[in-house]
Write a structure and sequence with these properties.
Layout: E1 2-3, H1 6-10, H2 15-28, E2 36-40, E3 50-58, E4 63-71, E5 83-91, E6 97-102, H3 103-122, E7 129-133, H4 137-147, E8 154-158, H5 162-174, E9 179-181, H6 185-191, E10 194-197, E11 216-219, E12 239-242, H7 247-250, H8 252-260, E13 270-271, H9 272-276, E14 290-293, H10 298-310
Parallel strand pairs: 1-6, 7-8, 7-10, 8-9, 10-11, 11-14, 12-13, 12-14
Antiparallel strand pairs: 2-3, 3-4, 4-5, 5-6
Helix pairs in contact: 2-3, 2-10, 3-4, 3-10
Length: about 325
């Protein structure tokens, strides 16, 4: 059984390779059972409640993968990341374990890649100003991911702790990107071509009245009915797409909009698979406003892990 640490897992997963790999995986399809979700709280945990997700998938290409991902939002107060994950890849024909991979790296990179894949169909082709909400592992990757599909040349970042946004903007500038932190979220949303939310928020951050015609709203942080990043008005008058149909049961953003009447489940424009297979059209005009809501799919993890495995002999 081969072990891929964080660096070895990351190396084959450039967005120039991973976004097309996800596209191909959605076209081919895979067996993806519903994820197992369990709340975790222990008497000795000091009230730090968590969620564990167990996400299996297998493909006709002969690979079976199982990701275990632990999410503890209270970890930030302890100086720890809020997400920890492991990924085990198996031979789907025999069940033989092939590799243990860094699940954090796979999760973050495939989530950012799925965000960019959605934008490749839904954001304007000339979209250049990206606003990122959040400063975590996934948020940090969004500029590189989106720049692989759109001509992004201006980055703004907002965070509920302003110093975190300043630090991340400085990091991006050190990487040669045109980036700055913003504190006026409304003004930034009104001017952004793409608004990408990668937070663990439980109450809306973005309001629909702020979103400009022709903008693309990317919601990739929340993944349970109790989490939400956008208010119900964000969906009014917009074409909404999801990564998988599971989003309609898991996303607090979508459930709120459906309850408010600003979105009907039957009006969702389609899934990533439908877009990748050209079964549904993406953006239809420059003034159209689009929304992409992702809750994550084990198919994406399997695609990333397969890419790592198949690249193992490259040096």
């Amino acid at each position: 059984m081969k072990h891929f640490d964080e660096a070895a897992t990351r190396a084959p997963l450039s967005f120039e390779r991973l976004v097309p790999a996800l596209h191909a995986a959605f076209v081919a399809g895979a067996q993806v059972p519903p994820r197992h979700v369990h709340g975790i709280e222990t008497a000795s945990g000091g009230g730090n409640r968590g969620t564990v997700l167990i996400m299996p998938a297998w493909s006709d290409a002969g690979f079976l993968g199982i990701k275990t991902i632990n999410i503890f939002p209270g970890n930030s107060a302890r100086g720890l990341p809020g997400l920890h994950a492991t990924y085990v890849l198996y031979d789907a024909h025999t069940g033989v374990p092939l590799a243990m991979m860094d699940g954090n790296e796979i999760t973050a990179r495939r989530t950012a890649a799925a965000s960019a894949l959605g934008a490749s169909f839904l954001a304007r082709e000339d979209a250049r100003r990206l606003l990122v909400l959040g400063t975590g592992r996934i948020a940090r990757m969004l500029p590189a991911a989106h720049a692989s599909v759109r001509p992004i040349d201006e980055l703004w970042v907002w965070n509920h702790r302003a110093e975190g946004a300043e630090t991340l903007a400085a990091q991006w500038r050190a990487e040669g990107r045109n980036a700055r932190a913003v504190t006026d979220l409304e003004a930034a949303v009104r001017q952004a071509d793409i608004v990408s939310c990668a937070t663990l928020a439980t109450s809306p951050l973005v309001r629909g009245e702020w979103l400009a015609p022709g903008s693309h709203l990317d919601l990739i942080g929340s993944f349970t009915p109790a989490m939400r990043e956008a208010d119900a008005q964000c969906f009014a008058g917009a074409r909404t797409f999801v990564d998988t149909d599971e989003a309609l049961q898991k996303s607090g953003d979508l459930l709120d909009a459906i309850a408010a009447g600003t979105l009907r489940a039957e009006d969702v424009g389609g899934t990533l698979a439908a877009l990748c297979r050209a079964e549904r059209p993406g953006r239809s005009g420059a003034e159209e406003r689009t929304v992409f809501k992702a809750v994550g799919s084990a198919l994406e993890d399997l695609a990333a892990a397969t890419l790592v495995w198949q690249s193992r002999d490259m040096a």
